[in-house]
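ENTRY TYPE: paired fold submission
RECORD: A
CONTENT: sequence, then structure tokens
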Amino acid sequence: MPRILLIMASVRASRIGDQIADWIHGRNDIGLDIETVDLRDWPLPMDDEPHQPKQKGFDGYTQEHTRAWSRKVGPAAGFIFLVPQYNWGYPAALKNALDHLYHEWQYKPAIIVSYGSRGGGKAADQIAQVFQGLHIQPVDTRPALPLKDVARTGADRLADPAAAFAGQEAGMRAALGQLAEALAQAPAGA
């Protein structure tokens, strides 16, 4: 089974992305090989490579953190991007992680899962535009998880993610199915 990276885009000290990632794993009843990748664990300084990865004649990364990020992303067959909406946009840490690479993302299928007060649709729309530039192939279904009326604990954690997102469960399962279908249709070695 090809490996899928579930990329948690929030690096804030107070966040619920880990709970949502666990919820996504719980909807994976089709057996996709999903590995959660927390961008907190991948400190990538802004613009510290001397060349753009897309540049003609590009001969490799100079920084070890970029080479390590490339080794993580490159072999993945597809992605699930877990994207919070901040001020109607997506986190800078995700844009930076995307921009550190180019060829490693190309022509691979992806799911955009957004969350925010009303579901994070504006962040999902913005990241979909970036995917066009990187040639990432998003599936049609984009689960949007609204947080406005979700019960929280005293530590600002979700009280019960399964109950909070019960209305989005079918969409999440549909997106995972579409990802599996896209992987099955991908050319060998892609």
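RECORD: B
CONTENT: sequence, then structure tokens
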Amino acid sequence: MKRILLIQAHPSGDSLCHGLADAFEAGVRDTACELRRLDLRALVFDPILHHGNRGSQSLEPDLVRAQQDIAWAEHLVFVYPNWWGSMPALLKGFFDRVLLPGFAYKYRPSSSLWDKLLVGRSAQLLVTMDTPGWYYRWLWHRPGHNQMRHTILGFCGVAITRISEFAPVHGAPPAQRAKWLKQARNLGRKPG
């Protein structure tokens, strides 16, 4: 039985991302996996890391619980829109505040090298985009996916196992959206 943390990071509750997260959750409920869910829009926290990693900024209770959920999880699932080639500010602010030194990574003394403190966890991404997937891959070289794979999750030791793109959203007819929701439910039935 796998422990899954589902993180929905669209700031609107009536978005396609929210529907994809609901569908994924329904799929997981058909399995023996344990699931916890975070809807970032419902959390109360300041997304700005005011002093970088040089100063002290207390974590709000919702972020303390988020760290506890991440520590509990074996598999992380992120559902978010791709805006300006990457994630929305809400998700970036969440990462800035939660993936802190001592929790997600630790620099070695007198070295620029670090230890990855979230090793052993996997992740998958469900990403909506208005840009066609082929264009995002071949012309822009997937900057948001690379950021998640290498400089955020990978930096902390989390290995991305699957990236599912739902695109282009702009102009997608209802039948296409229904197909995407079914796909997300099927992904939930086989997480990882």
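NOTES ON RECORD B: The two ends are 12 Å apart (CA to CA). The chain has one domain: 3-189.
STATUS: closed
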